[in-house]
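User: Predict Transcriptional regulator, contains XRE-family HTH domain's structure from this.
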Amino acid sequence: MTSTVGRPVGVLLREWRERRRLSQLELSSRAEVSTRHLSFVETGRSRPTPELILRLTEQLDVPLRERNQVLLAGGYAPAYPQHGLDAPALAGVRAALRRVLDGHQPYPALVLNRWWEVQDANAALGVMTAGCAARLLAPPVNALRLSLHPDGLAPRIANLAQWRGRLLAQLQHRVERTGDPRLRALHAELLGYAGDDVQAPPPTARADDVVVPLRLRDGAAELSLFSISAAVETAADVTVDELVIECFYPADDDTAARLRALAVSPGAAPAGPAAR
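Assistant:
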């Protein structure tokens, strides 16, 4: 998470406003507070109430984890709980995620946290992870590292430059949204995996593509997959707020048939990684 130790609440609010590229006038209008008062808060001349902090961070689309940090910097208790995914309070969320994972068979699906660490997955993910180095499959499995590492999926990805560009763009967007140093370090690590074959601009999509697919070699065949991501939009818990479920779908009939065949072939696809 972003380090806020010893930093004034006004400084943090100003940094979030600047990260969102908003002027004081724009933010004050959205939060229904005077520009003068917002200026006083940012410079430390006025201490914001917890209600004002929550209103400002809501308008700034600050993630729940960082909202708690801003509250702590202002001398207030965190407003959002953070339960472990295995906590009784999250039983309903876990059950819902598991239903999605199971119902998505025979296609791969996984649950990721803020740092792209796999929290759960269905058995069909094994089709994608087959052949990856054991150390990359040891919990907590990082899906981005697994995808782009030379000992992971990378050698099997036919359109590696294109897929790598997509993943790095997603990661960079989250770095900018959260300011999280762990994500920034992950981005730097993944950039270091690049070889000469992926330094050129990513190739354009094929003429018949309507999505950017993951083209994954599977023996003599090639699986063509695209993904749809979903999150809990009404999350009031930090852990739940950071969960994303990513479901892969076949981009063509051959891939759909191949995945269905693997699902009914005993031992054809090892179970996907899970952190729990």
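The two ends are 22 Å apart (CA to CA).
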